[in-house]
Amino acid sequence: MLAFVGTWVRARIERAMEVHLAGNLQTILDANVEALREWAAAMRSLAEVLAADDSVRERVAGLVSHAQEKGTAPQVLLAAPGLETLNTHLRPALEARGFQSYFLIDRSLVIIASSAKPLIGINANSSDTLDACFAGNAVVTRPFLLEGPRDDLAGKVLSGQPLMFAAAPVRSRNGEVLAVLGLSILPQTDFTRILRTASSGNSGETFAFDRQGLFLSESRFKDQLKQIGLVPDSPDARIILALEARDPLVDLTKGLTAPKRRSELPLTLGVREAIAGRPGMTVSGYRDYRGVPVAGAWTWLPDFDMGLVTKLDLKEAFAPLLPIRLAFWFLFSLLTLGSGVVFFLMRAANRAALKARQLGQYRLEEEIGKGGFGSVYRARHVLMRRPVAVKVLNPQAGANSIARFEREVQMTSRLSHPNTVAIYDYGHTPAGLFYYAMEYLEGLSLAALIAHYGPQPEGRIIYLLRQACASLAEAHAQGLVHRDIKPQNILLTRRGGIPDFVKVLDFGLVKAPENTEELELTGAQTTLGTPLYMSPEAVKSADSVQPASDIYALGAVGYELLTGGPVFPGTTLGEVFMQHLRSTPEKPSARLKRPVSPDLEDLLLCCLAKKPSERPTARQLEEALEHCVSATAWNRETAEEWWQIHLAPQTAKKPQV
Predict the structure, then answer these.
(1) Is 580 found in the same domain as 500?
(2) How far apart are CA 595 and CA 273, in angstroms?
(3) Beta strands of 394-539 (E only): which ranges?
(4) How many Å apart are CA 634 and CA 463, to the nearest integer?
C-alpha cells in the first residue's frame, strides 16, 4: 500500500511540477512579449515627439530646402547652415533617452543630416520601413547589421555593428512629410534588456531570432559560448546576427564535439517551430544551441518579423524532484516517530512566521496594496494598538530603489497639511528590510468613485479639488512637485467624523528643487507620471516639470470627475502623448451635451493650458474654486448624506483602501 501510494504521489508531484513549469515558461514568454511591445511603442512615441518638435521641424525644413536648391553632394550637405544647430538641438534629447545617433532622410532617399557625418550624402536603400515612414507612420526596426562607417555620439566609429532604429516622419506645417527622422538603438543593450524583463532561475533566458535562426539579442551564456568555441574568445566577439541557434546534437558543455559542421546542423526545436508559425512549448526537453537539455516556450511575432524563445535548463527545472522523492519515502518510513518532530517543526515554523510578520514596533495584519517598488500592509503599533499602513520595499530591490524609497519618506515627512498622507515612522529590520509607517486610511479613491458612481456634481468636484489644492499648495511652497497626481492617488475618507475628506497619496515620484541626486535616481526612466494626466512639458522632458505640471494633472482629474472620462482618451501611449502636446481639450459641456457652469468649465480648461505660465497656482486655483457659483452646493451635510446612502456599513461593499 505504501509503495502504491508513494508511486501515485510521486507521479502527481512530477505532473504538478510539469504543469507549474509550463505555466511559468508561458508567463515569462508573455511578459517579455508584452514588455517588447510596450518598449517599441515607447520608442515610436519618443521618435514622434522629437519629429513633432517645432524647432526640429523648422531646422529639417531648412535642410530639405538647402538640399533641393544646392544639391545632395556630401560636401554641400556638410556645409548646410542648419546642420550643426540641428545636431546641437538633438544631442541632449538623444543622450537623455539613450539613443546612439540620428539620421535624416529626405524624399529622394538621401541622408541629408546625421550625427554620423560619414553617412551624410549616402543614398539609403528603399525599404518597407522607409515607405511606412513616408506614409506617415512611426516604426521600430528589428536589429540589422550596419555595413559602412558610422559615428556614435562620442565620435567613435562603429562599423559592422548590429543596430536598430526608431523612426518617425517629420512634417511641414501643412502636414506634408518632409523627411524621416531615425534614432539608432544598440540591440545588445536596450533591446536585450527588454527581453530580460522576466526570467527564471540561473539558467533561464529569453532570446530573439530572425527567419534564418540568427540571434537578434544577446545570450546570457556568452562566456560559456566562448569556452565551447561557438563564439570567438575576444572582447569584441559578437553574438547578434553572427550566431545561429542550431542544435549541435550533443551537449557541448560536457566537452563533446558536434558530429556535423555547424551549417549542416538543424535549428533548435523552439526556433524551428516558431519560424514555421507554430507557437508552443515543451517541458519534456529538447537540446538548445549549446546542446543542453532545456524546457522551452516559443512564438513568432509577425509585427516584428522575429521570434522569441524562453527556456530553462531541465536540470535546474526539475532539481527539486530528487530531494522531494527522498524526503517522501523517509517521512513515510518514519511516520510514527517523525510525527512528534513534524509537530515540533510546525510549531517552530508558526512562531517564525508570526515573528516575520512584525517589523520593529509594527505587527503586519493584511496586505492591502502592491506596486513596483514594494507592498503596503495594514498593521498595528504593538504598544499603542493604533492602526497604521506599513509600506515595505521589495527585498530584491537595488540600491537606486532603496534610495528612492528613503527619499519618498524624507520628502513626504516634511509635509504636515491635513490633506496630505501623514508619515509616522520608518526604519530597517536587522536583515536590512526597509519600511515606513503612515496613517491608515479607509475609503475610496477618486478612480473608484468615478468607476462606481460616474460623473460627480459640480459642487462636490469643487469641494474635493479645493482640498487637493491645499495639499499641493504646501508642497509647492516648499519647492516640491508631486509629479503623479491622478484619481488613484487622491483618496476620500473620514477624518474626525468629517466625510469627503481628501488625502493626497504617493509622493514616491516627488521632485525637490536643485537636487542632483534625484536626477541620478530617476534618470534611467523614460517618463515619470501617468500618461493620461501628464502635462505637455512632462511629456517632452521628465526633468522640466514644475508646480504647474501638478496643476495640469489636477485639472485633468477635475475634468474626469465632471465628465466621467479622461481629457484625452487614446489607444496607444504615443496617441495620448501627442494629444497632450497638440490637441485642445473638448469643453466638458460639449462632451456631456448639457450645460456646465461657465466659471468651473473655464477654470478646468485654464488648468489644462499648454503653457505652464497660463495655469493658476495651487493657491490661486483654490481661491478661484471657492468663488465658483456651485461652490456652496456641496458641504459637510450633503457629503454626510451621500456617505450614509452609498457607504453605510450595512449596505456598502468593503471600501477600496
Answers:
(1) yes
(2) 60
(3) 423-428, 434-439, 443-445, 490-495, 498-504
(4) 7
**Angle formed by the axes of helices 2-52 and 321-333, to 10°?**
150
Q: What is the CATH number of the domain that holds 376?
A: 3.30.200.20
Determine contact, residues 499/639, Cβ cutoff 8 Å.
yes
The set of residues, in sequence order, having a beta carbon less than 8 Å from that of 162 and lying 6+ positions away, is: 143, 144, 145, 146, 186, 187, 188, 216, 238, 240, 241
φ/ψ of residue 244, rounded to 5: -95, 140
Q: SS3 of 449, please? A: helix
CATH of the domain at 42: 3.30.450
8 Å CB contact between 304 and 142: yes
- In angstroms, the CA 520 to CA 517 distance is 5
Read off the pLDDT of residues 331-367 as tens digits, 9 standing for 90 and up. 667 666 666 665 565 445 434 433 556 777 888 888 8
For residue 386, the tally of other CB atoms under 10 A from its CB is: 14
pTM across the whole model: 0.48
Instruction: Report yes or no: 541 and 97 within 8 Å, Cβ to Cβ.
Output: no
Contact present, 572 and 41 (Cβ < 8 Å): yes
Pairing assessment for the beta strands 387-393 and 434-439 based on DSSP bridges = antiparallel
H/E element, 209: strand 205-209
Q: How many domains does the chain have?
A: 5
Domain boundary among 402, 423, 440: 440
Our measurement of the distance from residue 559's CA atom to the centroid of its chain's CA atoms, rounded to an integer in Å, reads 26
Q: Give the tens place of pLDDT for each residue, 240-286.
A: 999 999 999 999 999 999 999 999 999 999 999 999 999 999 999 99
Query: What is the domain extent for residue 342?
Result: 321-356
User: Which residue has cell 527622422?
Assistant: 181
Nearest to residue 505, comparing CAs of 582, 417, 404? 417
Specify whether 455 is located in the same domain as 516. Answer: yes
Nearest to 577 by CA among 170, 39, 172, 49: 49
Query: Whole-angstrom Cα distance, residue 144 to residue 161?
Result: 8
Q: For 309, which DSSP code?
A: E
* Residues 454 and 577 reside in one and the same domain: yes
Q: Do strands 374-381 and 362-370 pair parallel, antiparallel, or not at all (unpaired)? A: antiparallel
* Residue pair 202/316 in contact by the 8 Å Cβ criterion: yes
* CB-based burial, 565-582: b 16+ in 10 Å, e otherwise: ebbbebeebbbbbbbbbe
Give the integer Cα–Cα distance in Å for 211 and 618.
Answer: 56
Domain end (from 389, 413, 440): 440
Q: In this structure, what C-alpha cell is assigned to residue 420?
A: 496630505
- Supply angle C-alpha 123, 127, 133, rounded to 5: 95
pLDDT reported for residue 377? 86
